[in-house]
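job 3f2a | input accepted
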Amino acid sequence: AGGSTFTVSTAPPRRKAAVMASQTTAPDVPTASYRSLAAGLAALRILFGLVYLSNALAKLVDVSDFRIGPIGGNLIARANTRGILESAAQDTWLGPLGAVYQSVVLPNWGFFIWFLIAAEFAIAFGLLFGVASRLAALGGLLLIGPIWLMLLDEGPYFWAYPVELVPLAIMAVVPTGRFAGLDGRLAARFWGRWPF
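job 3f2a | predicted structure (196 res):
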């Protein structure tokens, strides 16, 4: 008579699942709608398009300082670009990457600066209008990624390059041009098979 008692729950399995689900789900919290998230990413895409457009124009006319009324600043013109690349290639901890820039890019600067200007205009167009937006973001990553890698040991402001690289990486993965961009129309035209 002094034995232990063992009880088994007799609640129906559906009730157990409902109890478990109610204990594991998050409380009702307002979430962002698809439209607001897509609009935010589209705004980021367009902002980066303006960044690439302004820097491409600065290189095209070779003017780095600008002023619009009381607002002024500087952009990366041709001379600035070469200086950044020369410094990064000479002082890099990545010898092979620095060697490519020193032996291929810088000696052929007359070609590469115009290639860079064309690439920046193409990236700007893709991001501003949402055309092949993932490809445009990937192009931006390919332009600034190697420079960031070469300058990692220089000790610049830590977030200077990641603040550009991370949004570009997100835009290379997320099809931001499908909202407020031509990628949405192209995706519909190609039955959803448009890769951008």
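job 3f2a | Strands lie at 65-68, 71-74.
job 3f2a | closed
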